[in-house]
Write a structure and sequence with these properties.
Dimethylsulfoxide Reductase, domain 2; alpha/beta; 2 domains; 18 helices; 7-stranded mixed sheet; Rossmann fold
Length: about 425
């Protein structure tokens, strides 16, 4: 049971990769009645956590048995999701995949998978978000719209006052590079509009300019070379700069080559001054899913246990590709909604195989699932650990009790794993 009603402070918000840790909640009678400091999305997450809960058509024990039977009878199980639950649940999911020789993938494969591939080739020049707040005098958002997707990112880190940045609005510049003028671009100091799909070309041009090369063209990617030269000059003259990038860079033409080029640009800039870069991670624990997968399997996502040991191959063992090829014959979906986000071919096959869906809320995937199990919301109804977009692990607190009989993902997955092992004997 949770503590008595009252004000609960220093709560971490389990929504986006910022994992804001300054939330103050008012709790009365196991209900959250007020959320101080949270953005509009955080408000909805906490105050409406009890709405639209997933319905279960049987007891938890019966559903666990059905799920285990599906898993044991499958020949090519796909375990997917994990980015909106805590780290201990990940461990239990990996155990199930290993036990039956299945594949385990997380939502990074459809968002920042290219970031991981680029980092594997060229390194990871990352720093803590506190470094951004306290030191950075030049911020670049590339293919990212934080005011929409991460509402407090700017106010907490890139427009906030810091230890050496006394006035976050006057002492630092924010530049936005994107294909259209977003709401984030509207509040930035400079906006550079580029042609869709030209990111790799533009980054390569910036690298060439930074190395003193003369480009024999007037524009690159729909932007004049003179403006790109201004950006290079600003980057070289910064005392400390940070490049934040989003899906506009990872999912446009070039994909992981875009990230590889961006990393090398940051490495180039470190010959002149101090620069780092960071992906704007979406789900609050997608970074954690990559970390725990690496701890357990040696690889960050797209891991296959068919041969009894982990193998890694993005494009072959990633969820969308497996479903689009019609390869998976059962799916264990945890804290994700592939039916709402995957391409048509993948969803068509998803609907044709038995799906086990673990989630606190109803979603599109729950409509086609054969087994639906409602679970507690991590960071609200159970504790756990999650990893912020900069790699910092944070502890999620339990604020209120879950509905009666509802358990955390980790406990349900542990029950399924034990039942799978019993059935295999």
């Amino acid at each position: 049971m949770t503590e008595d009603s009252g004000m609960k402070e220093h709560i971490i918000c389990p929504f986006c990769g910022c994992l804001c840790d300054d939330i103050a909640l008012s709790v009365e009678g196991n209900q959250i009645t007020d959320n101080k400091n949270g953005c509009s999305i955080s408000q909805a997450k906490f105050l409406n956590h009890h709405d639209d809960r997933l319905e279960m058509d049987s007891s938890l024990e019966d559903l666990v048995k059905k799920a285990a039977e599906i898993i044991v009878n499958s020949k090519r199980l796909l375990v997917y999701g994990l980015s909106s639950t805590e780290n201990d649940a990940h461990r239990e999911a990996y155990k199930i995949a290993e036990e039956v020789g299945g594949v385990v993938d997380n939502t990074a494969s459809v968002c920042h998978g290219p970031t991981i591939l680029g980092s594997q080739e060229s390194g990871e020049p990352i720093a803590a978000l506190s470094e951004t707040r306290n030191r950075a005098d030049l911020i670049i958002y590339w293919g990212s719209n934080p005011q929409f997707a991460h509402p407090r990112h700017m106010s907490r880190y890139t427009r906030a006052d810091g230890r050496w940045i006394k006035d976050g609005k006057k002492d630092r510049q924010i530049w936005v590079v994107d294909i259209r003028k977003t709401i984030s671009a509207g509040v930035a100091d400079r906006f550079i509009k580029i042609t869709p799909g030209s990111d790799l070309e533009v980054i390569s041009a910036i690298r060439a300019i930074a190395r003193g090369k003369v480009l024999e063209v007037e524009e690159v990617g729909g932007q004049s070379v003179s403006v790109l030269a201004e950006l290079v000059e600003a980057m070289k003259n910064a005392k400390y700069g940070v490049l934040f990038f989003g899906l506009g860079l990872t999912q446009s033409k070039g994909r992981h080559r875009n990230i590889d080029a961006a990393i090398r640009l940051i490495q180039d800039m470190n010959h002149f001054t101090k620069w780092s870069m960071m992906p704007m991670r979406g789900h609050y624990n997608v970074a954690g899913a990559n970390k725990t997968s690496t701890w357990q399997t040696g690889y960050p996502y797209a891991v296959d246990y068919a041969r009894g040991y982990p193998r890694y191959q993005p494009g072959e063992y990633t969820a969308v590709d497996m479903l689009a090829r019609g390869e998976a014959d059962a799916v264990l979906n945890i804290a994700a909604d592939p039916a709402a986000h995957f391409p048509r071919d993948a969803v068509k096959h998803l609907a044709s195989v038995p799906v086990i869906n673990l989630d606190p809320k109803r979603n599109m995937t729950s409509l086609l699932a054969k087994v639906n199990i409602q679970t507690a919301i991590a960071g609200i109804e159970c504790d756990g650990a999650a990893t912020r977009m900069d790699g910092l692990p944070l502890y999620l607190k339990k604020v209120v009790d879950p509905p009666e009989g509802i358990l955390p993902d980790r406990d349900v997955l542990r029950m399924i794993y034990n039942e799978v092992r019993r059935l295999k004997k």
